[in-house]
């Protein structure tokens, strides 16, 4: 046969392959996907367990540091009762006036008074709450609490920093600074002999003595400092800061909780939170004392003012009563006794009642005018009542004037005596009550429960924070696992590949080999030799899986057009060289004579598995032509020969297109039971399509978590376009499952994509 005839024959053969590929259809072995999603979720969690654990531990550690960095917060509380007058209490002529200074105050108003600056500021000044004096602690209070040993231990962390770890304490009696040094931190360092050193970073450092007041003239103004107590070993440091009073008052107003216990109960609960339990309880008690003191002072002041007004009015009223009695006695002495009728007596009572009411309203208006305007609703209502009483007096006066003259005069005199007598008696009674109220020093506010020193902090709840952080870490770790899976989108199971290709095409499921990972790590990246797992650990699960591949290959070999098998993959770093080298060793161990060929011209490194050099290999053997056995390393393992790429192959990829490659493969294949070729990735270069045309079977290697469904499908499609139908897929580096799927194959397993066969 001539050269032209051979070329024509090759073209017809390739055209036949493409025609069969166009007419063929992929085998339809639909897989049942029920329950796959749930299994996939569990597999994702199982495969990413170390990622989930790492994220959970990291978040838990962050939560623990956060909990340890938070200061303990204590809460003190007290209970106050506000007494309200009984609505059914007996009233006198000035009961409405007395309500202005007695207990007629709403609970809501008292709650606002408790929050007022007038109540809080005196407590701040008395307790020196605008002075912050505290030991220097390590920035993690939780750690300090765990390491605290009580007493006065040696200060500092490894002897440095001046940190305190025990019962160190400082009390400042006087500390005044110029406005420019407000909120400025001073550092106090304990020294021997009750001495201390002060540093402020502005005026340098100076020394003082505990119990004595010192004055320093700094560039910004005079500084007065008196420390009454300093407990700490030499070297222990304390922080001292003077804060503006208004800042402290605002902070207390925000931190102060004032709530009524129950509905309209008049019982008020007051709470305050802070990091110092003793200071919190003391501040709250001082606020309560100041509140009750001011409340009592207000009531007493109001009673005294009203009493002064009444005492001025009583002598005048007494003289009026005496004058009316004298006039009535003179009338009786002159005219004798006049017998008033029932109608006149009734008019007398009405007129006297109206006159008394008018006096009450005038008195009340005088009191209200001291703090209310004429347009106030209370003043307007009072004026309307006064107008009504005036009209009633005019009516009763007209009725009296209609009586006979003698009776009319008698009635007027009697009315004056009655009105003046009633008013004088009632005002005297009211004045006596006011005297008792002013002298009793009793307030309508009663402190039921004083604030006690809290012994357990209300926050932070460190165990809860750590627990929440752990739970959050697990959730974030789980989310990270699914995000990583979605980002990588690598297949994680052989079932997913078969479900994607609608056929049972996975011939081997090679589990991850921790032994191979350890051996590779020991060998190092720069080592010239790589350990062959089939020789070092023949019982490894990965090698057992390759033995399953060997069995499937033996079933398929009789149906192949030749004994040349190519192993490739969609992309690099899938472990195809590992599969090729160990598969060749496994087949050779069964007594078959095998030739392993490294045709990855760009990145071939199979020679490292056998401790050989890549010099004088495939390229030199094909170039020699008449020496097909040239470059072959004989018996690298029993029944296994190997030929590397050769030194001249780099950059000479076009020689794969030459007819000499086909002739060389034919010439060497007759001397072996199996010729196994390690080819470069399908999607990276065109070499696999060229090499696959000479092979009787092509196998794709996919790696768990790395290879994607799109890459596998694209590889199959590219090989199909070249007239090559892969025999199956080797799934590499899969995670060990509790149940390994049982794959069964017929004598002639279905090929992927193209069902046509080539004849040798």
UniProtKB/TrEMBL annotation:
Keywords: ATP-binding, Cell inner membrane, Cell membrane, Coiled coil, Kinase, Membrane, Nucleotide-binding, Transferase, Transmembrane, Transmembrane helix, Tyrosine-protein kinase. It is found in: Cell inner membrane. It is a multi-pass membrane protein. InterPro entries: AAA_dom (IPR025669), Bact_polysacc_biosynth/exp (IPR050445), GNVR (IPR032807), LPS_length_determ_N (IPR003856), P-loop_NTPase (IPR027417), Wzc-like_C (IPR005702). It catalyses: L-tyrosyl-[protein] + ATP = O-phospho-L-tyrosyl-[protein] + ADP + H(+). Residues 406-486 form the Tyrosine-protein kinase G-rich domain. Gene3D superfamilies: P-loop containing nucleotide triphosphate hydrolases. PANTHER family: TYROSINE-PROTEIN KINASE (PTHR32309), TYROSINE-PROTEIN KINASE ETK-RELATED (PTHR32309:SF32). Belongs to the etk/wzc family. This is GNVR domain-containing protein. The lineage of its organism: Bacteria, Pseudomonadati, Pseudomonadota, Betaproteobacteria, Burkholderiales.
